[in-house]
Amino acid sequence: QVQLVESGGGLVQPGGSLRLSCAASGSSFSRYTMGWYRQAPGKQRELVATITSLRITNYADSVKGRFTISRDTAKKTVYLQMNSLKPEDTAVYYCNAKAGDVGSWGQGTQVTVSS
Q1: Tell me, what's the pLDDT at 27?
Q2: d(CA 67, CA 115)
Q3: Where does the pLDDT of residue 28 fall: very low under 50, low under 70, confident under 90, or very high at 90 and above?
Q4: Which residues pair with 57 in a beta bridge?
Q5: Cβ(59)–Cβ(67) under 8 Å?
Q6: How do strand 18-25 and strand 46-51 relate by DSSP bridges?
Q7: Would you call 68 exposed, middle or buried from its count of C-beta atoms within 10 A (0-12, 13-18, 19+)?
Q8: What is d(CA 78, CA 52) in angstroms, rounded to the nearest whole number?
Q9: Which strands, in side-by-side order, build the sheet including 77-82?
Q10: How is residue 61 annotated by DSSP?
Q11: CB 46 within 8 A of CB 60
């Protein structure tokens, strides 16, 4: 089992940037597919980006070209670099780890994009 702790959220202006971090603990981090999800008020939780153990990435169309997911195996940390932020990016962002039918969620970090 992997335990996840997100950080890096906050208030930014439209067009600004933010980097989220997800620190993982556990013995199998390197074999997990890691992902970032987000949930806006009144909306379903949606996938933002994923990165496999081999560093293959996948992005939601809404963030493609603006967000970058990466992982550092030595630090057991997954990052989400968010550029050109839009108000519609406002949500609670959650880190996820998954291996087969086993998954873990972080507590979430608030990202607010507003003037």
Answers
A1: 77
A2: 20
A3: confident
A4: 51
A5: yes
A6: unpaired
A7: middle
A8: 11
A9: 3-7, 18-25, 77-82, 67-72
A10: T
A11: yes
| Structure tokens, 15 | 């067009």
Q: Retrieve residue 43's tokens.
A: 């909306």
Both tokens of 92, joined, read: 């609670």
pLDDT in tens, 3-27: 999 999 999 999 999 999 999 998 7
Q: For tokens 């990435």, name the residue.
A: 57
Distance CA 3, CA 96 (A): 9
Counting every residue written for the chain, the total comes to: 115
What are 24's two structure tokens? Answer: 């993982």
Residue 56 pLDDT more than 90?
A: yes
Q: Which helix (H) or strand (E) holds 60?
A: none
Residue type, 100: G
Tokens coding 36: 């970032």
Q: What is the CA radius of gyration of the chain?
A: 13
